[in-house]
Amino acid sequence: MGRLEGRCAVVTGAGNGIGRAVAIRLASEGARVAAMDIDTDGLKITANEIGSACIPVELDVTNDNSLKSAFDIVESEFGELHVLHANAGIANHSLGSTCSHEVWDRTISVNLTGAFRTIQAGLPIMRESTGHRAIIATASVQALRGTAWNVSYDASKAGVTGMVRSCAHEFGAYGITVNAIAPGPIDTRMLGVGDDEQKRGRLAGRVPLRRLGRPEDIAGAVTFFATPDSAFVTGQVLPVDGGLIMNATGKAYMTPEERGH
């Protein structure tokens, strides 16, 4: 029997990448999963991989009517909700000196406001459910260290960390934990390197573990928060980045042999 047998979960951004891996992992642990995304083609693939434990639900996290409709389906189909992973997001490479209002507003709307509205939409069902209940938001290691070319993205994800801590204070009264995952460079479409092995190598070289992360690495961390193993953990931001946050210089790591030691 899986650790989430009989539990119900929502995963947004589940049409590809991290969200798909999380939905698959939670289902493998026994949960029924409402996989949500604006990408209906991607959702079909996710749902087919999971099978009968998955309900695909079209969702635009920037649209209140879409959110209401999606969580009405959750309440109708599941009647309860124990795990909510607010993961939907977009990446925009933008400089502080040139970032347009349109790019800024769109990034904040999806990554921060969308996550907040998703949590608000799911909270009433979670409050009426029993047992361990967990909200997990996807932040980013860039929210903790910053970069020079992702001002709108970094700001949106930093906002997620503040939101999580505030909600953790409030929702603790309901017995609901609220935490965030801060992924490092994860090998997904959003990373934007495609098949460019040079770029992949440069990114991996900055990570102490010398590799890019996999969506399954994030799924494992989300599962920890989703289970009672983390019942006394709330308001935390967990970097899952292979140690990237420790690399203050941003330079590639070298082995002792490469350094001549």
Can you give a write-up of this model?
With 261 residues, the chain is α/β, with parallel strands linked by helices. It has one domain (8-193, 215-246): NAD(P)-binding Rossmann-like Domain (Rossmann fold, 3-Layer(aba) Sandwich). Helix content is 43%, strand content 15%. It is built from 8 helices and 7 strands, in the order βαβαβαβαβααβααβ. It has a 7-stranded parallel β-sheet, sandwiched between helices. α1 runs parallel beside α2. The longest helix is centred in the middle third of the chain and has 28 residues, at 101-128.
Task: Lay out the secondary structure.
Elements: E1 8-12, H1 17-28, E2 32-37, H2 40-50, E3 54-58, H3 64-77, E4 83-86, H4 101-128, E5 133-138, H5 142-145, H6 151-171, E6 176-183, H7 197-205, H8 215-226, E7 237-240
Parallel strand pairs: 1-2, 1-4, 2-3, 4-5, 5-6, 6-7
Q: What attributes does this structure have?
A:
261 residues; alpha/beta; Rossmann fold; 7-stranded parallel β-sheet; 8 helices
Report a brief summary of the structure.
The chain is of the alpha/beta class and 261 residues long. It has helices at 17-28, 40-50, 64-77, 101-128, 142-145, 151-171, 197-205, 215-226, and strands spanning 8-12, 32-37, 54-58, 83-86, 133-138, 176-183, 237-240.
Looking at CATH, the homologous superfamily is NAD(P)-binding Rossmann-like Domain
- Widest beta sheet: strand line-up: 3-2-1-4-5-6-7
Distance between the termini: 50 Å
Which term fits the overall shape? globular
What is the tally of helical segments? 8
Low-confidence stretches: none
Q: Tell me the CATH architecture.
A: 3-Layer(aba) Sandwich
Structural class: alpha/beta
CATH class (first level) name: Alpha Beta
Kindly state the number of beta strands.
7
Strand content: 5-15%
Strand and helix order? EHEHEHEHEHHEHHE
Q: What is the CATH topology assignment?
A: Rossmann fold
Compute the gyration radius: what is it? 18 Å
Nearest-integer average pLDDT: 93
Total discrete domains: 1
> What's the main sheet like?
7 strands, parallel
Task: Specify the helix fraction band.
Answer: 40-55%
